[in-house]
Amino acid sequence: MSKVKELLILSMMTVILFVSEQALTFLPNVQVTVLLIILYTRIFGVKKTLLIVIVHTLADNLIHGSLMPMTFFPMLLGWTLIPVLLGTVFKFLQKAIHLAIFSFVYSYVYGFLFIPFTIYFTGANFMTTLILDIPFSTILGISSFLSILWLYEPLYGFINGLLVEQKEQEGFGS
Predict the structure, then answer these.
(1) Counts of helices then strands in the chain (DSSP H, E)
(2) CB-side exposure of 126: number of CA atoms within 13 Å?
(3) Fewest CB within 10 A of the end CB: N or C in the chain?
(4) 3-164 in CATH: which number?
């Protein structure tokens, strides 16, 4: 695949990630972001997914006017952890049910990453912040779990099929 086509595909995947998150902002922590980052990691690999995640995090923070360290750094760290963990420690996780369980547990890790930044920048109490975060992490965990359980395999097959078809067409035309 040519570099231009590859860049276009990665750009489209970044836009899909960004738009899907923005479309669900009216529902606190209900999103398909974890699903898409896991899907991208499995299809495109860690490095390309990290690029998608960095661009997405910058765009997300810019559109919400929050390029503040209190939100930008934990969000960037949180979203980049998914491809890093799935490319190393949890490389063996391939089935939707295992990835769904990973996403549920990971949702608490993601939420808890914000706590030190919140405490440092606002002076908030640790226990209060932790307790207030649990319902939001739970909502993220449930939405991530269900979206992966229901959508991971069909989306993986669809996107991977398109990429294989594209590669076959390029090979045929050569």
Answers:
(1) 6, 0
(2) 2
(3) C
(4) 1.10.1760
Assign 3-class secondary structure to 89-152.
Answer: CCCCCCCHHHHHHHHHHHHHHHHHHHHHHHHHHHCCCHHHHHHHHHHHHHHHHHHHHHHHHHHH
Asked whether the predicted pLDDT for residue 29 surpasses 70, the reply is yes
Alpha-carbon span 34 to 49, nearest angstrom: 12
Chain-centroid distance, C-alpha 136: 16
Tens-place pLDDT, residues 63-120? 987 778 889 999 999 999 999 999 999 999 999 999 999 999 999 999 999 999 999 9
CB 107 within 8 A of CB 140: yes
Q: Where are the domains of the chain?
A: 3-164
Phi-psi bin for 138: left (phi > 0), alpha (psi -120 to 50), beta?
alpha
Q: Please name which of 105, 133, 106, 108 lies closest in space to residue 119, comparing C-alpha atoms.
A: 133
- Give the Cα-Cα-Cα angle 31, 124, 127 (nearest 5 degrees): 75
